[in-house]
Amino acid sequence: MTRSLSSASAPSPSAAAAPLIEAAGLGVRRDGRWLVRNVSLSVRPGEIVTLIGPNGSGKSTTVKAMLGVLSADEGRIERRAGLKVGYVPQKLAVDWTLPLTVERMMRLVANHPRAAIEESLAATGVAHLVGAEMRNLSGGEFQRVLLARAIAGRPDLLVLDEPVQGVDFNGEVALYELIGRIRRETGCGILLVSHDLHIVMAETDTVICLNGHVCCQGPPRIVAESDEYARLFGPRARGALAVYAHHHDHAHLPDGRVVSVDTDGTVHDHLHDAACGCDGEGPSHHDHHHHHHHGGAHSHPPHGTGGEAA
Amino acid sequence: MFAEFFVRALVAGLGVALVSGPLGCFVIWRRMAYFGETMAHASLLGVSLGLLLDLPLPPTVFATAVLVALALLGLERLGGLSTDALLGILSHASLALGLVAAALVPNLRVDLMSFLFGDILAVTWFDVAVVFGGGLGALGVLALFWRQLLASTVSPEIASAEGMKPGIARLILVVLVAAVVAVSIKIVGVLLITAMLVIPAATARRVSPSPEVMAVASSLCGMAAVVAGLFASLNFDLPPGPAIVAAALLVFLASLAVPRRLIMGSR
After folding, report:
1. How far is B201 from B36, CA to CA, in rounded Å?
2. CB pairs below 8 Å between A and B: how many?
3. Are B169 and B159 in contact (CB under 8 A)?
4. E strand or H helix that includes residue A42
5. Does residue A216 contact residue A53 with C-beta atoms inside 8 Å?
6. End-to-end CA, chain B
7. Source organism's superkingdom (chain B) (predicted)?
């Protein structure tokens, strides 16, 4: 028997492996309103799960509740014992009164050898900034340092809340390549939150579309298979980005109600049950029209910069 | 040589500066200056209660400050009002209740003014022992939990996600500020204790490349202010508490003259 080369192809997450973290029927309520409800998802070792959804759909709330940053009001969260987490939050502002160099930031939660710090910074392309002050970094540099900090401790689970915000398009492709490499080299599980509803990291195993609940989920289609996207993104993006096609059997009305949608486009105004028929195991493919209140049709033009203005 | 009362004052003042340095850094990093003020007012309430009920002052003052701090955390959990508004209520309610309680003390033999502005020249060796006992204890806790406290200050979310307890870190800081204010009240007084937390730390910021250096530099700035203030008080017959704070201000103003290019962390 020849030994399989782990770097030759991405190890597909073994379905047998126990999840690193698993949420079942997760719900978070604040001020009488459910921010998310009935969310079930899991991340296994070596698996990349990408959470997408419109603004305010509860992506950050979901990961924070799973990590224990927020308390959940409903459901169950199970973490593997001794799970080591590396977290890149969506927002972080360093007060100007706090002198904090990149090097000190890297040792924020745990001490690491100098070599590990330099290696992580080099991996995210910011080794030259090791002596810089955090508050003088640009948005993209800041994100790269946060990612370097999160991987320096060799976590079992990497949770990245919009890690490519403020990073230009080439940088986004490079960071996705890096995230893929981290997964291949360390075998860690990765939970990624993306602001982009249609373009996701190509190595994502499962995309979960969230809008208060799980609207649909499944694997993305890699860009190389789609000539149109391949032309738009250029050859470099072929391996890094992928297209996710939504298949919803329901629509979200502006007032927050959820209605089912038939193949002929008729909207049935009955109260939607929380399970919504498409958040079961594996990819779901319904022959329904795509109705989504954020207006994203499948031919939605991709974001050229891949990031909101910093 | 100097009179013993002056040596006692110097030692007590240096003790206060030593511990208020690092703690003051957290006060400005976490924007807790108003909280320090509230603890000072709560300490005055503690003094009045101690005198009224004939209880030993140091533990009574500390317990009162901690209770007011816990009341703040409880009211925050209740929601509905901002921390700023809650501090406004607790701070001035403590001050008013303290003054009311003081008026109820029969034959008040203690000059309340000495607690408003401090009376460092009247400190006893017992007071010095209280300052160093409380102060070194506070420094020990700071050192022990330093990484937790700092990580929770930079990002409570990262700290929490990666296994730390930012809620506990906050509780520790709140209790430490209460303790330091309570043991310092006799030295610099209710009205000026926040200055000893904030001014040396703000001075240190301009010359510090890291949080740890800032903590040490803040202590040194405070100690310099204590020495300069006490000698000025001795030579020019100035009230010592205000002289110390004025000296701290001078050190801060001098730090503003440091050329910008030499300031750590500016481009």
Report:
1. 14
2. 78
3. yes
4. strand A33-43
5. no
6. 48
7. Bacteria
B250-253, long-range: CB within 8 Å, 24+ apart, which pairs? B250/B225, B251/B199, B251/B200, B251/B203, B251/B221, B251/B224, B251/B225, B252/B199, B252/B202, B252/B203, B252/B221
CB contact under 8 A, A67 and B211: no
User: Which domains, and CATH codes, for chain B?
Assistant: 4-190 (1.10.3470.10)
* CA–CA dist B162, A157 (Å, integer): 10
Nearest to A85 among B150, B162, B266 (CB): B162
Say what the ipTM of the complex is: 0.86
Task: pLDDT tens for chain A, 310 residues: list them.
Answer: 333 333 334 445 555 588 999 999 999 998 888 999 999 999 999 999 999 888 888 999 999 999 999 999 999 999 999 999 999 999 898 888 999 999 999 999 999 999 999 999 999 999 999 999 998 998 889 999 999 999 999 999 999 999 888 888 888 888 888 899 989 988 999 999 988 877 788 788 888 888 888 887 777 776 556 666 666 666 666 667 777 777 777 777 777 777 776 555 555 544 443 334 343 333 444 333 434 444 333 333 344 333 333 3
Report in angstroms the alpha-carbon separations of B119 from B11, B50, B81, B108: 14, 18, 37, 17
User: What is the rounded distance in angstroms from the CA atom of residue A152 to the CA atom of residue A121?
Assistant: 8
Q: Which of A97, A112, A133, A193 is the best mutation test for B, with the most CBs of B within 10 A?
A: A97
Which residue of chain B is at minimal alpha-carbon distance from A71?
B160
Residues of B in contact with A94 (CB under 8 A): 154
Q: Which amino acid appears at position B194 of this protein?
A: T
Give chain B positions within 8 Å (CB) of A79: none
Q: Any CB–CB contact under 8 A between A72 and chain B?
A: no
Contacts of B154 in chain A (CB under 8 A): 92, 94, 98, 100, 105, 108
Asked if A95 and B159 come within 8 Å (Cβ–Cβ), the reply is no
Tell me which chain A residues have a C-beta less than 8 angstroms from the C-beta of B211: 98-100, 104
